Amino acid sequence: MRLLTDTQLRSLKKIASEPVGGRGDGVLFFKRRGAGNIEAYYRIRLEGKATLIKIGQYKATRDGNGYTLAECRDKVRELARIPRENGCDLKSYLQEQERARQQQEENQRRELEAEACKGTLSDLIEAYLQDQERQGKESANQSRQAMKKNVIKAYPLIAAKKAKDVSPDDIVVILAAIHNRGSEAESVRIRAILHAIFNYGMKSDYDPTRVGDKRFFIQHNPVAATRKNTRANNVGERVLSHQEVKQLWDEITKAEYVGFVMSRFIRFMLATGGQRPKQLSRARWEDFDFVRHCVTLRDRKGQGREKIHVVPLSRRALDIIEEVQAVTAGYPWPFCTGVKSRSKESKGELVPIDPNSLKTAFTRYNNQLAASCEREGRTVPEWFTARDLRRTVKNLLIDAGVSREQRNLLQSHGQTGVDIKHYDRHEHLPEKRESMKRYDALLDKILKGVDVKLVDMAHYRSVVTKDEEVVL
């Protein structure tokens, strides 16, 4: 059988073939299809039956698709060599090759799917925050804003990394930028949030209740390898003197850009024994008991749990509430504000006074106080915050002779959180009232300018009126 030529193939009507090699090696077989294309096959007898193995389309023209005649011959010679060199049946060999090819494609598909399923740092942050929000964590929104500002927007390339590939070097880059702009405390806070985020990621892959379909495959927490800035976490020691307490009480209502409600709130913090500002500002009107002269503060712990703390109200505290009542009686909270900077549907919405607004108020007061001292040639006092005010009250409680246990009760330190339905909210209220009496007696003398450190309770009880005792 002669070898075919390109001329013969181009004019092919139906079929044509040429030998591949010796006897039993089969033939190169060509067949014209109805569309005019010519297809090449390797034809061989397998198990006594003629079998066609497709090579592909014959390339009839220079610009056409398919294989040239020479390429078709090379391919069939390769197929003819397989049984001789591998000592196996060609059909079985080709089937095995096809299975291997399909398996390889499946493995590649799975690898691509697994890679696509591996979450980025941005995915991990979002999954953590959604989990926090689902649990009702109050800090979730603040954490979201902090991560958006300091990680996602500041370092998009790091945020786009697979979470498992984020290194301690990446974390240092993020934290160093915050530290270098002078925000040491913020740097420590961001480190703590990132540490919690990666701890969440290490466990979330094996949590059937996890949020989203991303997995993170994190083996080690990269934040743990970074050095913690302990200097920024030093326990504050700022305590206001009696004179500074009186000055704050007298001048906060006159401070520029510190509103009426905010100034009364700062006074209310002093009058109620230095309660936590967030809990104090979130107390609604219905939380105030004007018969028993107390207010119920709630510390939401997430997932419907809350810790409650009942604070007795002195006459001084009640007077402040009466002042703000003239302004906020129609609102949900005595101490609230409208947030003009919010966007869309929440713009101008009333909300309780938040920590940022309180921080701004203290900043304005401190700046005004510093400017006044500089004008008068006096020493500028050390800056103080709401946290320092709470610490100051604790020291005043000590000066007033209130025991450690009673101080902790009044300021809700270390009390075990339990469901409200199982808790007598007025438990320990008599002890709290007694502590508040001692404290308010000392505060009264401070605000009157009397130079005292301890309260003479025998003298106090001899002059206090019955009405005042009812109030306290």
UniProtKB/TrEMBL annotation:
Q: Does the keyword Nuclease apply?
A: no
Q: What residue stretches are annotated with the Tyr recombinase domain?
A: 239-403
Keywords of this entry: DNA integration, DNA recombination, DNA-binding
Known Gene3D superfamilies for this protein?
Answer: 1.10.150.130, Integrase, DNA-binding domain, Intergrase catalytic core
Q: Which domain of life is it from?
A: Bacteria
Q: Which family does this protein fall into?
A: Belongs to the 'phage' integrase family.
Q: Know the name of this protein? A: Integrase
